[in-house]
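Reagents: none. Just compute today. Type II secretion system core protein G.
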Amino acid sequence: MLPKKPHKKFPQGNNGFTLLELLVVVVTIGLLASYVGPKYFSQIGKSESAVAKAQITAFEKALDTYRVDVGRFPATEEGLNALVENSSANPKWNGPYLKKSIPLDPWGRAYRYLSPAKDKDYEIVSYGKDGQIGGTGDDADIS
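Predicted 3D structure written out:
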């Protein structure tokens, strides 16, 4: 039989981190988070506005195709739903003009559609984060 090897004991000396070293690391992480966090979260509102603008652009393209087929834009009463279903049983309707159903705006509210609108054939509006007419920043209307 082989003799048993004695257990190795940990050498005395530097076995880990000191409390001061850990505090320096925690403070450094905190400083980085306080610098990066506000910059990151300020971009969220901009991305929601960009999504709303992109959705409105998609609606505009679908409305243009609808007009070519039907000869007019949907009335306010028909709304944007006229792009996905032929509720008026129009024989010229050649839809659906959108691949999916009408999405809500990035803040969870329906887009407002008017046709005819003031000085335009139609208007599509999202009232922004606050859901109220007017506003600035994230609360600004998008049309």
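The chain is about 35% helix and 5% strand.
Action item: order primers for follow-up constructs.
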